[in-house]
Amino acid sequence: MTNTFKSGLVQLGQWFRGEIAGKGSNDHDLLFRAEAQNRWFTPEFIRMALHANGTMLESGTLDRWTQQYPELSIPLESRRVGLVLAGNLPMVGWHDILCVLMSGHCAVIKCSSNDAILIPAAIEALRGFTDTPDLDGRVEFVTGQLGSMDAVIATGSSNSNRYFEYYFRDLPKVLRSQRTSTAVLLGTETDEELRALGADVFNYYGMGCRSVTKLFLPNGFDLNRLFAVWVDWAHLADNNKYANNYDYHKAVWLLNQHQLIENGFVLLKQDPGIFSPVGTLYYDFYGGLSEVKEAIDRDADSIQCVATSDTAALEGIASPLVELGQTQCPDPWQYADGIDTLSFLLALSSNPDAQ
Q: In this structure, how many other beta carbons lie within 10 angstroms of the beta carbon of residue 215?
């Protein structure tokens, strides 16, 4: 990665974080167009996503990340890497694009139809901050088939993943399927910590793989404590899509005589599952942390991360641990599904057949 390209990324970080007047997070027209295309993408959540990506591009953070990969300082043979991006959150595929460009490859990008505004705008901004040779011919957007590829990184549902597995069977690939996140409460949390948990649950309407959709609670935990500190999220019910999900699942579950706890903007249901629908949240009680660890490890392949107030108490589980309120703020080296994307990409230059 050249110094000029790094400088361009640092400036792009400023664009993401809204530090350039009228640009990036401050570009009201950009936010309006993105929300018009996808009503889940509110200006609040778009700015949040842009700022999170901008934090990854601070100079010191970039240095700490790239110093783990000495190969980045060596010119490597470029490959064409197809990127099939998800669209459940604003800019959710940006980290893959960033890794491809940093490793010197050509990114052939198939945006989700739900997020086809923000990523092209970010690439256009990067072009303005970067010398032409650093990006020339290395970014291509496609709407149909990817065409001839040397490798692929694709994210989708469990069904689409089976298709990807077959369609890209002869290519080096990273395939990501549906995941979610959980939280383990110990019963000693302060109101401030529980309020922080609300961000893990409600940011992006709970639609991300790092969104907490299942709570593990100690026996006797008072659920009213959660409702008391989560009132600031009541405005989510103003979104028709969110409200429709809430009303639908409430009606279905009541019809099936499930016991529910509700507060007008989230339904709490005791359930052994971990993938709660939008507008709802599953929970289970536990008697000891050993049973929680066993439950989490059983679902480790479906869990992106686990939020808790005391990471030491859960040390040894198979899933990454984060503090309450931090699930949506990964560092750039905290790769999705635990797969080191940069190492995969750097290996392509020395071994194009690497799987």
A: 23
- Which residue in 301, 338, 342, 296 sits closest to 317, CA to CA? 296
Higher-confidence residue of 131 and 130: namely 130
What is the distance between the alpha carbons of residues 288 and 15, in angstroms, rounded to a whole number?
A: 47
pLDDT digits (tens, 9 = 90+) for 29-67: 999 999 999 999 999 999 999 999 999 999 999 999 999
Is residue 90 within 8 A of residue 41, CB to CB? The reply is yes
In the prediction, which pLDDT does 137 show?
Answer: 87
Count of alpha carbons within 13 angstroms of residue 237, beta-carbon side: 15
- What domains can be seen in the chain, in order of their start residue? 3-178+333-350 (3.40.605.10), 180-323 (3.40.309.10)
8 Å CB contact between 285 and 186: no
Does residue 248 surpass a pLDDT of 70?
A: yes
215: tokens are 């709570």
Question: In 63-73, which positions are buried (b, 16+ CB within 10 angstroms) versus exposed (e)?
Answer: eebbeebebbe
What is the pTM assigned to this prediction? Answer: 0.93
Residues 203/45, Cβ–Cβ less than 8 Å: yes
Sign of the torsion formed by the C-alpha atoms of 173, 40, 115 and 306: negative
Whose tokens are 């009228």? That residue is: 22
